[in-house]
Amino acid sequence: MARFEPDNSREIVHNLNEVSEPLRNATISAEDSSFYDNPGFDFKGIARSVYFLFTGSGVGGGSTITQQFIKLDLELNKKDPNYVRKVKEVVLAYKMTNERSKDEILLAYLNTAYYGRGANGIIAASKAYFNKKPSEINEAEAAVLAGVVQRPRDNDPRVDLEQASSRWKYVVGQMEDNGYLQPGQGETLQMPETQPRTDWQTDNRLTPEQDAIWQAIQKELEAKGLQQSMLYRGGYTIKTTIDPDAQKKAEAAVHSVMDEQPPSLKTSLVAVDPETGGVLAYYGSKVNKGDLDWASTRQEPGSSFKPLVVAAGLQQGIGIGEYYDGSDNQTIAGTPFRNSEGVECTVPTHCGIREAMTKSVNTVFVHLANRVGTPKVADAAHAAGIGETTKLANSENGVVEAGIALGQYPVFPTDMAAAYGTFVNGGQKVETHFVSEAISSETGPYELDIDKPKPAYSTDAEKSADIAADVAESMKNVASNSSVPLNGNRPVAAKTGTHQWGSTNLNRNAWMIGATPQVSTAVAMMSDDGGPQPLKDSNGRTFYGSKYPSQVWQKFMNSYLQGKKEEKLPTPGKIGQYEDTPPPPPPTSEAPSESMNPSESMNPSESQDPDESQDPTSSAGRPSRDCGGIFEPPCPPGQDNGDGDGDGGDGNGGPNNVAPTDRPRYYG
Predict the structure, then answer these.
(1) DSSP letter assigned to residue 333
(2) Other residues' Cβ atoms within 10 Å of the Cβ of residue 577
(3) For residues 323 and 349, what is the distance between their CA atoms, to the nearest angstrom?
(4) How many CB atoms lie within 10 A of CB 179?
(5) Residue 213 and residue 307: Cα distance in Å, rounded?
(6) Are 408 and 358 in contact (CB under 8 A)?
(7) Where does 460-579 have alpha helices with state H?
(8) CA distances from 140 to 136, 158, 650 (A)
(9) Comparing C-alpha atoms, which of 303, 474, 325 is closest to residue 403?
(10) Lower CB count within 10 Å: N or C terminus of the chain?
(11) Which residues pair with 438 in a beta bridge?
(12) CA–CA separation, 544 and 492 (whole Å)
């Protein structure tokens, strides 16, 4: 893709006078407040670090500026146990403190520290963040630079503004506590805006989407202990899992469908190899280098989360042939739920998993989640590949609400692509990754420790495979029913999803995810125009997962799979009640109720999402209401079209720890 040779990233300052006093003070405050008094190490810091090491109750701590310089300059062996490395740091730091002045050590540290953005040393850092010389950095800017050293990527305001703001406030507070700011001065400072991450670099050979991949690679390697500073020093060659042909086809699919749509619509496409977890294609709607990568943004998956509810049921022996009450407008576990208008089973009170999955009947999956226990649904999702850092529960009380069945908790597109991969790869959980090799010209291959595939849903590999295959079986008709079958009716396990925009008739997120044994692809869309917006296309109409996300997904999948052998979905494991339970005979004493054919209410020229209604901006086909309109009083709980963004309940868990709330959860 590219060769990185950061220009002027190793310039050094020769005298501390070339560094502004606020920048020196911020560095000491953030990293080592006793720097000018300690012997190169801090007894209290070491004690705290030892306590954290043996109790597992905290992380980091204990390293002075002198120790950090030694670790950076000598690149102490990261494979040594933590305590061995720490002892080496302490001994060498003490020796250096006896041989060099504190100003010399601080100067050496400032020239050696890594600040992210490919910037080694304070000259490059000042240029990378503020396009200034170190001597020109003020108090507020100094707090940014001193703060990023701890976690060069996460503390970058252009990567994680919330985390960076928290770190900036901490540094400012430390500067005030150590007497480097006047009392109360910290409250008058405002966090400054940094320039885009790559503006300072002269290498512009990466396209915006390649830059998104490069950022993802750096984040992945940093998590494995390979910092960007080490990459540059070691002259690393990085081999990615990206398939250039797949990447080209992914970008072409997005552009062919979305170029005529408003630029505020942000499309994410992630394709993963189900067998290895390698990311084959990655698109995040970046227009310029340094823009936000939307594929790395968590989004509510809506109904595309329903297969994971089925997986949780199968783990407990609940087969896909069982039936539930799929009728509309029910209160389940203390929460009102509705199906999308026009969506119902042939016999609403007797709806099997297959039919409910194809038509996306919400109440069926809420009943199943309630029966299984919503925490078990969250467990199944994590087992399939939803990262543990993604919280599938309420942040306030840790309760997993029944709305998990309809995808109320935001997730990453990459994780959803991996989760769907388990349904077609024999039930194996794989670690999604961008890097297959990282080889230093000096030290050779770096040990990446990529997790090997392991059974996702059971310790027994055969049982895990059976569970995954039965989930795939329940999903096999979704793509064709959504009018986006693959060429030649190639078998695929797929599901659409949509998440509503508050208590409105508009939508917030729209998804399509589908997997074959060769590739699992997630397409997600949201809208942002300086802030989140409802989904609206060029005609001003909202849309669902079966519209543009499905079109992008279909174009990419057909293009990528063209010429590849057709592979069948795994043979079902037939767990529990596998065959559909037939409905009871209709009563003979009553005439059958009349119901409108859903197809009569739809515009046949448009693809409709099976889990959503027709044009939600139209009142046609919607039941009349006496509340919730412009001139009507607010609707009581269960009467408006909420998606879980309203006020929560009392937080007390109901049956199976399902939280009864006042939030209506109508569709996903």
Answers:
(1) T
(2) 16
(3) 9
(4) 10
(5) 29
(6) no
(7) 461-475, 478-481, 548-561
(8) 12, 16, 42
(9) 303
(10) N
(11) 238
(12) 20
- Is 166 among the catalytic positions? no
pTM: 0.70
The answer to whether 541 and 470 are in contact (CB under 8 A) is no
Q: Where are the alpha helices (H) located in 80-160, listed in sequence order? A: 82-99, 102-112, 122-130, 139-148
Rounded CA separation 469/422 (Å): 9
Tell me the two tokens of residue 562: 């063209």
Q: Dihedrals φ, ψ of 422, to 5°?
A: -65, -25
DSSP structural state of residue 227: -
**Least confident among 95-99, 105-109, 453-457:** 95-99
Exposed/middle/buried for residue 422 (C-beta within 10 Å: 0-12, 13-18, 19+): buried
Catalytic residue among 20, 49, 63, 303: 303
- Each residue of 255-311: pLDDT tens digit? 999 999 999 999 999 999 999 999 999 999 988 877 889 999 999 999 999 999 999
Instruction: Please work out, in degrees rounded to the nearest 5, the angle formed at the alpha carbon of residue 563 by the alpha carbons of 557 and 568.
Output: 70
Q: Which helix (H) or strand (E) holds 331?
A: strand 330-332
Amino acid at 90: V
Report the residue count for the chain: 668
Token pair of 594 as six digits = 């009349």
Reduce the DSSP state of residue 545 to 3 states and report it.
coil
Exactly one of 9, 31, 304, 550 is catalytic; which is it?
Answer: 31
pLDDT tens profile 462-516: 999 999 999 999 999 999 999 999 999 999 999 999 999 988 889 999 999 999 9
Cα-based angle 477, 480, 481 (whole degrees, multiple of 5): 75
31 is catalytic: yes
Give all domains of the chain, ordered by start, each with its CATH number: 16-188 (1.10.3810.10), 208-583+598-668 (3.40.710.10)
Mean pLDDT of 377-405: 94
**Token code pair at residue 176:** 């005030």
